[in-house]
Design goal:
Elements (H helix, E strand, L loop, with lengths): L2 H26 L2 H20 L4 H22 L2 H13 L5 H32 L2 H14 L7
Helix pairs in contact: 2-3, 3-5
């Protein structure tokens, strides 16, 4: 085996091992939902630091955050089964409008439940912060998302 081939094989093996280790690490930590939770928590912590919240306020906000996370997790349960129901409906010779309406209504109810939990969390966060802290938090969001807000 030439030196060039040995280096190529070594690099290929290293890449495969790194990819496998990364995949294992991600799966061991809960995959994409867990990563998204960690990212969201980091952003929340950064925003709360910018608003200089107290530990008591932070505890209230974390409780609201945890309820939102739980609602989203609950809504994601049985996602594969819901997709299969939609695909089975699509694959049929004809689509049953009543069944399509029922699937849509169910999904809208699930979205509404999550929206209700988020709305309540926003109200709780608003109520626990002072006007100056709410302004600091709003300024943080504006600065972080300026490109999305038309700025």
């Amino acid at each position: 085996m030439s030196r060039r081939t040995k280096i190529g094989v070594t690099v290929a093996v290293a890449v495969v091992l790194l990819a496998g280790a990364t995949a294992f690490a991600v799966s061991a930590h809960g995959g994409r939902p867990a990563i998204m939770k960690r990212v969201a928590t980091a952003v929340i912590d950064d925003a709360l630091d910018a608003a200089t919240v107290t530990q008591g306020q932070r505890a209230t906000i974390y409780a609201a955050r945890d309820r939102v996370f739980a609602a989203v997790e609950e809504a994601r349960k049985n996602r594969g089964a819901r997709i299969e129901e939609v695909l089975a409906l699509f694959e049929a010779d004809s689509i049953d409008p009543a069944q399509a309406d029922a699937l849509r209504t169910l999904r809208e109810q699930q979205h509404q439940q999550v929206a209700d939990v988020i709305q309540q969390a926003v109200i709780e966060v608003h109520d626990v912060l002072s006007p100056a802290q709410r302004k600091a938090l709003a300024d943080y969001v504006r600065a972080r998302h300026a490109r999305h807000l038309g700025g």
